[in-house]
Amino acid sequence: MLRLSKLTDYAVVVLTRLEEAEEGGVLTAPGLAAATGLGEPTVSKVLKILSHAGLVEGRRGALGGYRLTRPLAAMPLTDVIAAIDGPIALTACVDNSIGVCDAEATCPVRGRWDPVNDAIRRALSGISIADLAGAPQRAALAAE
Known about the structure:
This protein is 47% helix and 6% strand. By secondary structure, the protein is mainly α.
């Protein structure tokens, strides 16, 4: 089963709250923690990772905080997953990496997972964080 970490889920939640900041405004880690219901240490950790990946930027000082580096519609889910969880792949055989599998020297399918991993990356790259932040499809269908 392909499963993302809780931290990736939290990152999406934090990013969607950051979008609610006024144009050019920033939100603090304590403010985001209160708005999301997540613990402040968790929010701080997520913000640090997202900042290192270039998805958010921090501003220091009395009026400091965090803001998005680009709109959520221009932020593919793959960027967030890669920032938090690392390379997107179903197996340890990520793009013919070396030294991550005990059986790589004798593996009959070595390198053959690459098309599967690429397909998953392409599918996820077509989903933006803005897509996830929108109203659930079920609610839209129920309203019709």
